[in-house]
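We now fix the convention by which a protein and its fold are recorded. Here is one such record, which you should read through line by line:

>
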Amino acid sequence: MLGNEAFARGAYEAGVKVVSSYPGTPSTEVTETMAKYKDVHTEWAPNEKCGVEVAIGASVGGVRSLSTMKHVGLNVAADPFFTAAYTGVTGGAVILVADDNGCHSSQNEQDSRYYGKSAGVPVLEPADASECKDFMKKAYDLSEKYDTVVLMRSNTRISHSRGIVTIGEREEKEIIPYEKDVQKRVAMPAMARKLHVAQEERLKQIEADADKLGFNREEMNSTEIGIITSGICYQYVKEALPEASVLKMGMTNPLPKKMIEDFAAKVEKLYVIEEGDPFFEEQIRALGINLAGGKDMFTIQGEYSANMIKAAFGRPVPEHTAIEDAPGRPPLLCAGCPHRGLFHVLNKLNKTVMGDIGCYTLSALPPMAAIDSCLCMGASITMAHGFEMATGNCKDVVAVLGDSTFFHSGMTGLVNMFYNGSKGTVIILDNRITGMTGHQQNPASGKNAMGEEAPAIDIKALCQAIGIKNVVEVDPLDIEAVEKAVKEETAREELSVIITKRPCVMIVKQTGSPCEIGPDCKNCKQCMKIGCPAIEIRDGKPFIIKDSCIGCGLCSQVCKFDVIKTCRKEAN
C-alpha cells in the first residue's frame, strides 16, 4: 500500500465513522481511499477549518473521526485545532497532516511538530506504510484513553512510498451516548482556563507513560554512535549507518525525557538526525544532554537522503547516476487546458495579476509569464484589494483564482472587497473540479467525495447574492470574448467578477480532431507564446504533435496568418 492508503486502512479498521478533509498533496489519497469504504461517511469540506470542525463535531457526537490536510492546511485549521486541544474528545479524533520537505508541491516548508507542541497534543510519526496503518489504529485508542485530539504527522516520502501492510478486520465501535457538558465543551474564558490546566496535566501523563505506549523504541547496536531520529529519516539512518544504535521516535511530542537520557548514557557520541527544524535537537540540548552533532552537520531546508547522511559521517558515497544529472522539466498546463486562453489575454493586456493556489499558478512561468504573485489559498482577492487600496489603481490589477480555491477561502475576500468599496476585478476560473491535487470534487462540481450526485453551487448566483452587480460568464477558450470581458470589466468604476467556465480537459471528454499547421506558416511563432505542450519547434518551425493535441483551437486564434486548421472542440 501507499502510506496514505495504509493510513486510511488503519482508520477504517479502527472503526472511524466520519471523515472530512480538504485535498492537499501529499495527503489527498487518505481521504480518497476512505471514500471507497461505504460504511464510512467521507466528504470533501470547502477548507481545512471546516474539515476539522466537522471531525470534532462527530467526536462530540460519540464516534471516531478523521480530518486530513497538507501542512499549510493546518494553518487554516489552527483555530479549531488549538481549542479542541483544550476541550478534548468523546469519540477518538485524529488530525492527519502531511508535511512537504523540499517543496515538491507547496509554497513553503514548515514543520508541523511545532503545532502539536504549541497546542499541547500528542504527535505520532510513522516511518513506513505498515506503521502508518498500525499508528493510526493506536492513535484512536490514545485519543480516547487520554481525552485528547491526536496529530498524525506524515510527509511526502511516507505518504507516497509503498510498503507491505498486513490488513485486519474493521472493529465497529458503539456510538458513545451524548451527554451535555458545558464545562468541557464551551471554551468561554472561565472554562478555558480550567481546560488548559487539564490539558497540561494529560500531556504530562502521556509523557510519563510514553515508554509503555509502544511508539518509541530503542535499537542497540554499536555504542560508538547513537542516533535519535524519526519518520523517513529512520529509514535513511538504517541504510547509511547500519551499525549505529538508534532511538526511533514514533511519538514526537511529548518527548520521553527519561528514555532519551537513558539512551544518551549508553552511547559514546549522540547525534540527532531530523528533517525540517531542530525540533528534537533544541529540546534535547535544553535537557543538558551533550550532542556530537545535529543541524550543524545537516540542513533545515529540503529532504535528506541516505547518501547525505553517509557523507556527513565520512562514509563513501556512490557517484551520481545519469538520472540525477538529467535536465529538469518545467511543469506546464495540459494541452487544451481552459486556463491558457485567459492568461494569454492577461499577458497581452499587461495586467498585474494577483494569483492563487492551483494549476493556473503555472501561468507565472514563461512563455505566458502572466501571474505576479502567489501567497496562499484565497490571497489573490485580498491582495488585489490591498494593492488597489495602496495605489488607487483598480484598472490594471486583477485577482485570479480557481473554483475550489474560491470556496476554500476566496468568498470571504470577495465579501471584504464589496464591503470595503473596491472597484477591482476578480476572475474565477471555474473548471468544475479541484485540479492540481488530482481531480477531487468541490461544491460546484455536482458530485460529492464518494462520487454521488450532489447540489452544485452556482458561483454567479453566489456572487450576485453578495451584492455584486457586474458578474460575467465567458468561455476561456474564446480569446476574443475573454479579451472583451477583461477590458470592459477592468474599466468599470465598481467591483466586477468574471467567471471563466469550461471543464478541465482531463475530466471531460472532448470531441474533434487535432489541429495542424499548414505549409504557409510564416514562422512568426505566435502560437508558441501560449505555452501549449502539444506545440514544439521542428526543423526551425512550430509543429503540432497530433498525439498530444486535443483540438481546443486556441493556437488557431492567436495565429495572425490563419494557417492553423481549426478543430475546435466543444466540452460535454
User: Anything to note?
Assistant: The radius of gyration is 26 Å. The mean pLDDT is 95. The first strand starts at residue 18 and ends at 21.
